[in-house]
Amino acid sequence: MPLLKQVLEQYPKTVKLAFKNFPLRNHQFAFMAAVAAMAAESQGKFWEFHDLLFKDFDKLNDRKFTEIAGALNLDQSAWQEKMKDPRISDLIRQDFTEGVKSGVRGTPSVFINGRLLKNRSMAGFRAMIDKELNSKNRKE
Questions:
Q1: Residue 35: which of 87, 78, 101 has the closest Cα?
Q2: What letters, b where the CB count within 10 A reaches 16 and e where it falls short, cover 26-65?
Q3: 112 φ, ψ (degrees, to nearest 5)
């Protein structure tokens, strides 16, 4: 089971996941991969599309995006039309800019309450989340 899913299952009422795009500039297909995944969101398939992209990150191209959309049984014409929506590209650029300002250097990057998580093991997540929760409880 993916680590983020484990974290969300372990902290169902106290942890919220916010995803931000950060397409690496040195990856030829990263921006279009982000667009394709965001377009899949309109059919409720963002995470499935996202996970398949990361599974084959080194094999990405336009044909692969279409293959993934087919594997997920997306309405191909609606998905392709959604990929042309300028709001998706604008959101991805905004996410990228926010990431740069926050110190993101690569993907994946994880922040907990605005602090970069360096130890991305389950133990690292637990330690930082519990520290934040304890800090919050002391303030209340």
A1: 87
A2: eeebbbbbbbbbbbbebbebebbbbebbeeeeeebeeebb
A3: -125, 115
Q: What residue spans define the domains of the chain?
A: 28-105
- Within 25-121, residue ranges assigned H as helices are 30-41, 46-55, 62-71, 76-83, 86-102
Q: Three-class SS of residue 23?
A: coil
Token pair in block for residue 109: 């990057």
- As given in the structure block, the two tokens for residue 138 are 């002391």
Amino acid letter, 32: M
Inter-CA distances, 50 with 11, 37, 60, 127, Å? 22, 6, 12, 27
CA 35 to chain centre: 12
State pLDDT tens for residues 10-59: 999 999 888 999 999 888 999 999 999 999 999 999 999 999 998 888 88
pTM: 0.84
